[in-house]
Amino acid sequence: MRPESAVTTAEMRKIEADAIESGSVTGLDLMERAGAGAVSAARERLMPDPAGKRVLILCGPGNNGGDGYVIARILHDLDAEIELRALGAPGQGAPDALANRKRWLEIGTVMPLDDSAAMGAQPDLVIDALFGTGLARGVDPAIFDPVRARIGAAPIIAVDLPSGLCSDSGQVIGAEGGILPATLTVSFHRPKRGHYLRDGPRFCGALAVCDIGLGATEGAVRLVRAPDGLGKGHGHKFSYGHALVLSGGMGQSGAARLAARAALRVGAGLVTIGAPAEAMPEIAAQITALMLRRVDDAGNFAGLLDDPRINALCLGPGLGLGPREAALIGTALVSARPAVLDADALTLIAADPELRSALHPNCVLTPHEGEFARLFPDIADRSEGPGWGKPDLVAEAARRSGCVILLKGPDTVIATPEGNVMLHAAAYERAAPWLATAGSGDVLAGLIAGLLARGAAPAAAAQTGVWLHTEAARHMGAGLIAEDLPDLLPRVLQDL
Ligand SMILES: NC(=O)C1=CN([C@@H]2O[C@H](COP(=O)(O)OP(=O)(O)OC[C@H]3O[C@@H](n4cnc5c(N)ncnc54)[C@H](O)[C@@H]3O)[C@@H](O)[C@H]2O)[C@@H](O)CC1
Ligand SMILES: Nc1ncnc2c1ncn2[C@@H]1O[C@H](COP(=O)(O)OP(=O)(O)O)[C@@H](O)[C@H]1O
Ligand SMILES: [K+]
């Protein structure tokens, strides 16, 4: 079953507590399933036959450690050689973990984590069951010292989370070095937000999520999935909308051309670039199916917008930061047309309270981190950690500005003013590191504008746009530059 959402610690606790309270399962059952799931993932991906293998298991004082004791017992039954090291014993607050520690002590021994004198030979596999979703503060890097030296090249499986990673924010809570980076992270029921956000993917290695029988319960943040097909039916070109992309002056038109080409490739019926007179020759020399109209100022822009068939706008890529551009944005917002506001448009809006107050629910703002901080400095300043991560801050920004916000990155978060939040992770099997290239953001803006022209609602256009953007990059892989992205779309669309 493919997870539909990524959960917070609080959501996961509630899902577990509800299941236990309903009487359908006990905490011990869940812990047993979690331990068994981790062993299955280990056998599938790293160690098919544990017999005779040395496994070093690190157990913490909570239920994450409880999973570790279960894993020790199962691997012992498979004839692995277990060395179990614990950071204290589970207290009364973790009775299931305590019960599993007792069961383990009937068949094996526990040594303290910091007793480096008694360390055995180098392990074939390390299981990190120190801290999971219960991580409450930064981990003292020194606790890893006794084992770090010994791990060598052995793969590390993190149980639920690499110890030190915040499950809500994807950040290492404490000091540098206060985390054990994993080769494979095995989580339970649903991925945690931190598996995808910020540093999460780098520290998790690979990610496996195993079912522990908690049904179809989901968290509030949905994961963006492939769109349902973007085929064209019977209509003519005007059935698929007309997007207008505004360009900056001479020598600045590349970004608008990239965006416009993406809008056309994603299936907008018509796409026009609106440019000042001085830039028109340069643009005309480089386009064919795209159309070109003169937009010198807000006056002729408003005239163009008298055509009701122009049903989506894209403003910002390479636009410029002067009074002309501010006036163009004002005109676009007054027209209430669905609009993508990116790059320079965001900088202008950040500096102009009047423009900001004209934002409306058909706007999609696509800031990168720097632009986001300019737009919402107080939100961006708040440090992330348990209970507050990227999805929360984007949700707050969307609520405040009354439009859809898409905060870019390998962990793109999209939020609507009504409080719907979606996470698109370009990570793990969908990693697309070659998107870190000049102009790729312009292509994303154009994709969303093209989808708006085709009639998609703003949040849907944002989700589909970001998915297609990553997918196109994945089709190309190494060597990708922004110019390639629009022309990779046919393959992506045909595969849908
Ligand atoms: N409750 C359940 O039914 C299930 C829980 N599961 C496991 O339980 C984990 C959550 O368990 P817990 O809520 O007990 O939390 P954890 O086991 O993740 O950690 C909590 C313990 O660590 C201590 N601690 C937190 N931060 C610390 C730090 N920086 N330095 C030193 N000590 C620190 C706390 O005082 C507490 O004793 C999940 O990640 C998952 O692995 C799974 O077994 C599935 C079922
Ligand atoms: N490492 C990465 N993995 C996946 N996507 C990335 C990565 N780095 C950047 N991106 C994506 O590439 C785009 C870059 O946009 P932006 O920062 O506006 O750059 P530019 O202004 O040069 O076009 C965004 O959609 C962002 O999400
Ligand atoms: K862990």
Automatic annotation (TrEMBL):
Q: Tell me if Kinase is a UniProt keyword of this record.
A: no
Family annotation (Gene3D superfamilies): 3.40.1190.20, YjeF N-terminal domain
What EC number(s) would the UniProt record show? 4.2.1.136, 5.1.99.6
Q: What's the cofactor?
A: Mg(2+); K(+)
Domain (YjeF C-terminal): residue spans on this chain: 220-496
Which CDD domains does the record cross-reference, listed alphabetically? YXKO-related
Q: List ligand-binding residues for K(+).
A: 64, 128, 163
Q: Which InterPro entries match?
A: Carbohydrate_kinase_pred_CS, CARKD, Nnr, Ribokinase-like, YjeF_N_dom, YjeF_N_dom_sf
The residue ranges of the YjeF N-terminal domain are: 12-220
Q: How is the cofactor bound?
A: Binds 1 potassium ion per subunit.
Q: Name one GO biological process term.
A: metabolite repair
Q: Which family does it belong to?
A: Belongs to the NnrD/CARKD family. In the C-terminal section; belongs to the NnrD/CARKD family.
PANTHER family given in the database record: ATP-DEPENDENT (S)-NAD(P)H-HYDRATE DEHYDRATASE (PTHR12592:SF0), ATP-DEPENDENT (S)-NAD(P)H-HYDRATE DEHYDRATASE FAMILY MEMBER (PTHR12592)
Q: What does this protein do?
A: Bifunctional enzyme that catalyzes the epimerization of the S- and R-forms of NAD(P)HX and the dehydration of the S-form of NAD(P)HX at the expense of ADP, which is converted to AMP. This allows the repair of both epimers of NAD(P)HX, a damaged form of NAD(P)H that is a result of enzymatic or heat-dependent hydration.
What does the subunit comment say? Homotetramer.
Instruction: Kindly provide the name given to this protein in its UniProt entry.
Output: Bifunctional NAD(P)H-hydrate repair enzyme
Q: Which organism is it from?
A: Palleronia caenipelagi
Q: What is the lineage of its organism?
A: Bacteria, Pseudomonadati, Pseudomonadota, Alphaproteobacteria, Rhodobacterales
Q: Which gene encodes it?
A: nnrD
